[in-house]
Structures are given as structure tokens and as C-alpha cells.
Specification:
The protein has about 425 residues and is an alpha/beta fold. About 40% of the residues lie in helices and about 15% in strands. It has a domain at about 60-275 and about 315-355 and about 390-405: NAD(P)-binding Rossmann-like Domain (Rossmann fold, 3-Layer(aba) Sandwich). The protein has a 7-stranded parallel beta sheet with strand order 3-2-1-4-5-6-11, sandwiched between helices. Strands 7-10 form a two-stranded parallel ribbon. A two-stranded parallel ribbon has the order 8-13. Helix 4 links the parallel strand 1 and strand 2 (about 120-125). The chain binds uridine-5'-diphosphate-glucuronic acid. One of its GO terms (cellular component) is Golgi cisterna membrane.
């Protein structure tokens, strides 16, 4: 007890000629040790921290991360070149950059273009809006057919410029977009990012390209919004969108007008009407109804005001592919060079529908028959989520100008979809794996 001083100041150090130095030495070593440990800790933290992964809950964040996807290098350029090279037998080949190539429509049109010998390069950001493994499966299929999909975002202008440096695109088929009507209430900014900013970013690069490509892009039947004229014609009012999704597609149509007017870009907009079929989008009703019916879950069928029928002009994917090819084949050249317009350029808009609307409850009856399962249904009032009660395309313009003629009715198209669905989701033991 006696050796412990009552107050710290009274503690007497053992006398030594080296003691002051030794004290400083000890404290320096301690500092050095502390700093080294700190460095080591930071280094270890850096090592074990996982790389930023696209977040499932925030697709905008996911999209931002995807901007940093690596691209470039000799091997990459070689793949870009080889995918964009048309087959030697093809006369007057197109060289097409397909944005959204891992998507539903994009994958089908890319395959069709490649089949007939055109050069095709895909671009897709593989965002997490719906099951990415389905996009990867489409990518593998395209890869086996010689179509390379570059991983990147349409908002990445330096990537787009690089692609134009490597390949001389004659056409752009622009299908990359934030799709879905109802999701716009959940994530409005993703619609602005892709459908407005992304489209402008692409057009900016196209306008400066030399030669400028012709552009064909996906608008939507949803631009008709609260239009009551039936069937919907291209000349009908489209200034009353019912959803933010529709508003961004309508904005795209106006933006297309501007770039055509100022820079001489040849632009064709396609108003797709509820496209369905094999390799489709899991966020669409026919797709998740199938899944839910098979899982015994109740499906909500929307009804309009006063128990009115909700109907869609469901259009089969193969018919849409023909419409896209017809648009690419009839697209005239852009007229600008070096970012300057040299003369008037083509500006078109077409409905691509099926011309025979089917009530959603009939869609469900067809699915029940094909799946041989009675669906559990609940009829609910259509929520105020941007949906419109019906769509019905007048396709006479596309028929005249593109030779577009849909040939698949809903029953036939759904049969092909169900066959694909059961095959795709069947696991090795033959059970359905969702
Ligand atoms: O034609 C178009 O422009 C649009 O077509 C579809 O949009 P939508 O027609 O609403 O397709 P679904 O979401 O598959 O809905 C089909 C029908 O099912 C109805 N529905 C949807 C969901 C649900 O739970 N219950 C239900 O009855 C909808 O009201 C609609 O009438 C696509 O999702 C859009 O990306 C596309 O642009």
C-alpha cells in the first residue's frame, strides 16, 4: 500500500541517466505501433469489404452502379466488331445496335436480325427491375447465336461513343427503357433516368456520329392515356397520359421530334400494345398470373368503373418482331453530318397492336385451360395506379407503310408462352422451380 503515492505528482521515477530518453523512446514506439495497427485495420477492412453490388431495393442505385461496369480493351473490341459484322451473303446488310438486348423484345429482335445475316450488337445494363437470371438466360442464348451484349448503360455517353468508334452502326433499335405502368408509382425517378435522360444521352451521341444512324425506338400504347376514340389511331390525342410511364414515353416522342428537326436524325417510334410471349417479362399480368395460378395463389382481376370490363389488345412477340424489322428496313437515312442537319429527315410513329382487345378475365380463362388448373380469382376495382381500362390499336398505317400484319391470336400465342414457361421453369426432376 505504501508504494502507491497518494497523489500522482508525488510519484518518483527510478533515477537513471537514460530515463528521459527511454521515456520518449517508449512513447514513439507505442505511437508507431498504434499507427501501424490502424493502417493494418484499414487495409483489412478494404480487403474484406464486398464490391458495391447493385441493390435490389433501389434500382436507380443499381443503375448508377452499373455505369461503372468495365468495358474496353482489345478482346472486348474484337467481340464488339465480330458481333456487329454482317454475314457475307447478306445483300444490303444493316448494322444494328440494339439497346435493351437482354430484354424481352430486344432479345427476340436481335436473334431475328442475326438470323437473316445483319450485324447486331446488344447493349444492356442488366438492372434488377425483374429477375436478372432470365436476362442472363436470354444473353446466353444470343451469345450462342453470335450476338454479343455489351454490359453498360445508355446514360454512359463515353461508352456509347466508344461503341460508335468501334462499329459503324447504320441503325439503332432503342428498346432499353424502364417498362411497366404500375411500378412508376413506386420508383418514379427510374422512368426519368431511362426513358428521358437515357434517350437524350443516346440521341446526343447519334446526332454527332458520322454517318448518323437511323433510329427505331419503343414508345407505348399507354401514350393514348384517357383517349376515348376507338380504335386508337396515331393521329388521336396523346396529351392526357394516365401514368408517369406514359408521360415519359410521350416525352420521348416529343424529344424525337426535336432531334429530327434540329439535327436531321431519321426516327421511327413504335407504340407497342401489351406484348406477350415466350421469354416474356415476369412483371406483366399474363406472366405472373401463370406463376400464381400454378402456385395456387389468388390472382386479382381488375374491373373498370360500374363493373366495366378491362381489356387489352394483347400482341404476340413474333408479330412485334416483324413490325420492328419492317421499321428498320423502311427507315430512311438520317440527313445530318457533324451534328448539323443537311435536309429534312424521316419522322414516323406507328401503332403495333393486334386489333382485337381481349378482356383480362378471358385471358385468365385461356390460361386456366392451358394450365389445366382452376384459378383462384378475386375481382377488384382497378386501383388508381396509372392503368387504363382498355387499349385497341388501329394498325392501318403500319400495314400500309411497313407491311405489318399480325397473325397470332391470344389463344395461340398463350399456348406457345405456356409451353415455354413450363419448359423453362422445370427443374431436372421435372418439378416446376419458380
Ligand atoms: O401496351 C403498352 O404500352 C404497355 O403494355 C404493358 O402494360 P399493360 O397493358 O398494363 O400490361 P400488364 O401489366 O400485363 O396488364 C395487363 C392487363 O391486366 C390487368 N391487371 C394487371 C395486374 C393485375 O394484378 N390485375 C389485372 O387485372 C391490367 O389492368 C391490364 O388490363 C407493359 O407492361 C408496358 O410496359 C407497355 O408499355
Amino acid at each position: 500500500m505504501d508504494s502507491i503515492p497518494s497523489t500522482p505528482g508525488k510519484f518518483k521515477m527510478e533515477k537513471s541517466p537514460y530515463s528521459p530518453f527511454r521515456h520518449r523512446f517508449h512513447s514513439s514506439v507505442a505511437k508507431l505501433l498504434f499507427i501501424s495497427l490502424l493502417f493494418l485495420a484499414v487495409f483489412l477492412l478494404f480487403l474484406i469489404k464486398p464490391p458495391p453490388s447493385p441493390s435490389l431495393s433501389n434500382p436507380t442505385e443499381a443503375r448508377r452502379n452499373l455505369h461503372s461496369t468495365t468495358w474496353g480493351g482489345q478482346a472486348w473490341e474484337k467481340r464488339v466488331r465480330s458481333s456487329s459484322r454482317p454475314k457475307p451473303h447478306r445483300s444490303k446488310p444493316l448494322i444494328v445496335l440494339v439497346t435493351g438486348a437482354a430484354g424481352f423484345v430486344g432479345s427476340h429482335v436481335s436473334a431475328a436480325l442475326k438470323r437473316r445475316g445483319d450485324g447486331v450488337l446488344g447493349l444492356d445494363n442488366f438492372n434488377h427491375y425483374y429477375d436478372v437470371s432470365l436476362k442472363r438466360a436470354r444473353q446466353s442464348l444470343l451469345n450462342s447465336q453470335g450476338v454479343f451484349i455489351v454490359e453498360g448503360d445508355i446514360n454512359d455517353s463515353s461508352l456509347l461513343r466508344k461503341l460508335f468508334d468501334v462499329a459503324a452502326f447504320t441503325h439503332i433499335l432503342h428498346l432499353a427503357a424502364q417498362a411497366g405502368v404500375r411500378y412508376a408509382m413506386e420508383n418514379p425517378s427510374s422512368y426519368i433516368d431511362s426513358n428521358v435522360a437515357g434517350f437524350v444521352s443516346l440521341l446526343e451521341v447519334c446526332k454527332s456520329a458520322n454517318p448518323q444512324p437511323a433510329i427505331v425506338w419503343a414508345s407505348s400504347s399507354s401514350v393514348y392515356g384517357l383517349n376515348t376514340e376507338v380504335p386508337f389511331s396515331e393521329s388521336d390525342r396523346t396529351d392526357r397520359p394516365a401514368s408517369l410511364y406514359a408521360a415519359t414515353k410521350k416525352a420521348g416522342e416529343e424529344i424525337a421530334h426535336t432531334y429530327n428537326h434540329i439535327y436531321g436524325l431519321s426516327i421511327t417510334g413504335l407504340r407497342f400494345f401489351t406484348v406477350y410471349g415466350p421469354w416474356g417479362r415476369p412483371d406483366m399480368a399474363y406472366f405472373f398470373f401463370t406463376k400464381d395460378i400454378l402456385q395456387g395463389k389468388t390472382i386479382p382481376i381488375f374491373e373498370g368503373p360500374n363493373h366495366g370490363t378491362v381489356a387489352r389488345d394483347f400482341t404476340y412477340i413474333d408479330d412485334i418482331v416483324k413490325g420492328c424489322l419492317g421499321s428498320l428496313d423502311t427507315a430512311e437515312k438520317s440527313t445530318g453530318t457533324g451534328g448539323k442537319k443537311r435536309g429534312p429527315a424521316q419522322l414516323r410513329i406507328f401503332n403495333l397492336g393486334n386489333t382485337s382487345p381481349v378482356p383480362v378475365k378471358d385471358l385468365v380463362s385461356i390460361l386456366e385451360r392451358l394450365l389445366k388448373v382452376k384459378a383462384k380469382k378475386t375481382i377488384i376495382k382497378m386501383p388508381r395506379n396509372g392503368d387504363v381500362p382498355f387499349t385497341h390499336a388501329n394498325i392501318s398505317l403500319a400495314q400500309r407503310e411497313l407491311g405489318y400484319k399480325p397473325t397470332t391470336d391470344l389463344q395461340t400465342g398463350l399456348k406457345k408462352f405456356v409451353k415455354w414457361y413450363l419448359g423453362y421453369y422445370k427443374d431436372v426432376e421435372g418439378k416446376l422451380a419458380f
